[in-house]
């Protein structure tokens, strides 16, 4: 037998899935880092734009105190620095991903060709089985049956495994056009939450959905390993955003970027610092945590959990 039944699924299917998962894992992990860096850059850019708009309002209002304008200019200066840092980090992550692209193609191609070879054996096996079956059936006394079996025979004779597999590779496999992630500037149309607490004081919080990388149509994404949300990787590989999960105890998180608190209730920290997460991420993308004995808020996209 060419196929052995394993627990839950066919052994060959499980082996193929494991092979694709293993080939994808290094690239997929880098891709997640790109998405996190992208979100951090876009949020930092949005903060900068919000501060600039606020400064325009202050300067157009003769009743605004000079000290208030000066403080807002200081915030803009810090936000500009933060935007530059997160942009550089985003570009660095993209460069790291670009360097992994060729390895990703090579390893996925190897796994794809294994599947193609197995599929060719399967097609040839079923064609031979049907031919053998037709050779042992007596259809001489039934004209209708004879006509049907002749059509089946004609269809079997017209099979071309190599041609069919090439067509599949061109439309769903290695022959497809690649669609690699590229640097994307912040767009106001994107639904990001306000990252400055100042922007939230006079408005009710609005539910927000971070833009995630959605796979293009099949013809644009040759090796789609994220279909149906089914992953057998050892790690959990999210898209751009995890649903918030309330921590059952104190959770350590590490800063991926520098962050300077814009308001009195926000924490400030440097890349590599370890914080304690006290509450789950809220609908606006913020967490409450503790750093150096001080409790405050910080943007969830700036940290990652410490394993």
Describe the protein's architecture and organization:
This protein is α+β, with helices and mostly antiparallel strands and 307 residues long. Helix content is 48%, strand content 8%. It contains four helices and five strands, in the order ααααβββββ. A five-stranded antiparallel sheet has the order 4-3-2-1-5, with no helix packed on it. Strand 3 and strand 4 form a beta hairpin. The longest helix has 70 residues. The chain is elongated and about 105 Å long. About 18% of the residues have low confidence.
- Helix content, binned percent: 40-55%
- Class computed from helices, strands and strand pairing: alpha+beta
Number of strands: 5
What is the string of helix and strand elements? HHHHEEEEE
Q: What's the overall average pLDDT, rounded? A: 77
Low-pLDDT runs of 5+ residues are: 193-248
Gross geometry: elongated
Count of DSSP H/I helices: 4
Proportion of strand residues = 5-15%
Major beta sheet summary: 5 strands, antiparallel
Termini distance?
Answer: 44 Å
- As laid out across the biggest beta sheet, the strand order is 4-3-2-1-5
State the assembly state of the protein chains. Answer: single chain
Could you tell me the radius of gyration in angstroms?
28 Å
Q: What secondary-structure arrangement, pairings included, does this model have?
A:
Blueprint: H1 11-60, H2 66-135, H3 143-157, H4 161-172, E1 251-255, E2 274-277, E3 286-291, E4 294-299, E5 303-305
Antiparallel strand pairs: 1-2, 1-5, 2-3, 3-4
Helix pairs in contact: 1-2
